[in-house]
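Suppose a colleague, Dr. K., hands you the sequence of a protein chain of 122 amino acids and asks what its three-dimensional shape might be. Before reaching for any lab equipment, you can write down a predicted structure in token form. Begin with the sequence itself:
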Amino acid sequence: QVQLVESGGGSAQAGASLRLSCVASGYTFSSYCLGWFRQAPGKEREGVAGISKDGSTTYADSVKGRFTISIDNAENTMYLQMNSLKPEDTAMYYCAAVSAWNACLRFEFRWWGQGTQVTVSS
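The predicted structure, expressed as tokens, is then:
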């Protein structure tokens, strides 16, 4: 069973940086995509970024150039470095996974964690 545990959320002012971490376990498939999606109150879920085992990445247009996703395969840990934060980045961020890269490109994740809150004030 896939387990995903996020950490690193919190509060920040606009323009600041935060880094989210996600420890993943329980998956045995040889290829996979890990990623992040977010959801703000009253808004639809929004895919943020995804990364494959070989390091290929995909980003939502809203975060390109500001957020960087990375992975440490040895530690089964994924990171989301968020720079130049904006108030509109405020949301619950979820670490997520799916076994197919094509699905990841559409941010169609199958498993996700409990989420970590990110709040950005102006």
